[in-house]
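Support request from a user on the community tier.

User writes: "When I paste my structure tokens into the form, the page sometimes reloads and wipes my input. The last time it worked, I copied everything first. Here is what I submitted, just in case something in the input itself triggers the reload:"
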């Protein structure tokens, strides 16, 4: 039976790019992957332009296309993670943004490596057509996350990865309210190979990733995959307490030896109070990040609410990793529990 390759493409207000993305992927399969079935899932994050209308026309003309339309904008990671639940392929390209900054031309090479036995074929942005500030910020972030994490996250690897069905099942087993997908893929393991490529500059439209959104994603990665921030707070708190004890002992000894050299005055007190207050607020903020993440997780609820799924009848999400299959399995489990 012909193997199927699934491509997931998140989009938001990309009316200038969705048709070009679909055409590029279809052409690559027709030219370089004729022996594989194609499944292209577009996940729309409640676009306000003509993106959904264009995707509806594409899906009507191409039975290999499925469109998941979200009820509101849930962010690129939640939206993409939910799109992965609809994937039914033997291998899945986790994220191909419709702006094609990640080159779809690498897909045949990814598939060839997957056929050789690699379960994760990860694209690495060895060269980026972007500014120095962004490049430097990304490098600093990955140094921090790798220093704090229990596993290595390759600095230039994003969600542009082809993963085997078993890897996708392992990824989807994570019940994460705010999934950091590249971190989840790295954490589950499996045999991996990295393919370097040039990350191209966007040709049409504007990027939807603001500075605050990237900061939010970075903080989510740090607090989701490591306990080091809380351990850092504990160690710093212990060190400050030790220094305070040493300073107190020094003050007493200095006063007994020569009262004139003992430190005194309001300046020392004010500086100490502000320093310790700043440390306390920093630690309370870190603790708040963890509490917020726990609060969002325990509240439950769906990762994404879908408004509609556009595509043929069999494309409504009945594959082994789809949302419908997950709900069906959950219902069966509940019925079995009640019967037992």
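"...and here is what came back when it finally went through:"
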């Amino acid at each position: 039976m012909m193997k199927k390759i699934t491509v997931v493409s998140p989009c938001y207000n990309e009316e200038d790019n969705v048709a070009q993305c679909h055409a590029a992927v279809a052409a690559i399969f027709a030219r370089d992957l004729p022996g594989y079935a194609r499944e292209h899932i577009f996940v729309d994050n409640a676009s306000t332009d003509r993106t959904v209308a264009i995707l509806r026309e594409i899906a009507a003309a191409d039975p290999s296309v499925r469109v998941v339309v979200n009820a509101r904008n849930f962010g690129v990671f939640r939206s993409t993670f939910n799109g992965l639940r609809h994937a039914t392929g033997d291998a899945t390209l986790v994220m191909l943004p419709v702006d094609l900054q990640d080159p779809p031309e690498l897909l045949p090479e990814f598939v060839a490596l997957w056929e050789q036995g690699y379960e994760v074929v990860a694209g690495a942005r060895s060269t980026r057509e972007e500014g120095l500030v962004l490049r430097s910020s990304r490098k600093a972030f990955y140094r921090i996350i790798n220093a704090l994490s229990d596993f290595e996250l390759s600095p230039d690897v994003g969600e542009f990865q082809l993963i085997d069905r078993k890897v996708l099942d392992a990824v989807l087993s994570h019940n994460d309210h705010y999934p950091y997908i590249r971190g989840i893929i790295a954490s589950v393991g499996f045999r991996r190979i990295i393919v370097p490529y040039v990350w191209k500059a966007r040709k049409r439209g504007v990027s939807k990733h603001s500075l605050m959104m990237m900061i939010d994603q970075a903080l989510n990665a740090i607090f989701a995959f490591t306990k080091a921030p809380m351990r850092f707070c504990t160690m710093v708190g212990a060190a400050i307490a030790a220094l305070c004890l040493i300073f107190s002992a020094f003050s007493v000894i200095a006063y007994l030896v020569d009262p004139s050299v003992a430190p005194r005055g309001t300046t020392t007190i004010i500086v100490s109070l502000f320093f310790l207050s700043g440390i306390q607020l920093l630690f309370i903020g870190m603790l708040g990040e963890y509490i917020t993440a726990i609060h969002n997780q325990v509240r439950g609820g769906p990762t994404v609410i879908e408004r509609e799924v556009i595509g043929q009848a069999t494309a409504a999400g009945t594959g082994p990793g789809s949302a419908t299959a997950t709900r069906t399995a959950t219902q069966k489990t509940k019925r079995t529990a009640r019967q037992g």
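Agent notes: The reload is a front-end session timeout and is unrelated to the input. The domain at 4-210+305-339 is CATH 3.90.550.10 (Spore Coat Polysaccharide Biosynthesis Protein SpsA; Chain A). The two ends are 39 Å apart (CA to CA). Escalated to web team.
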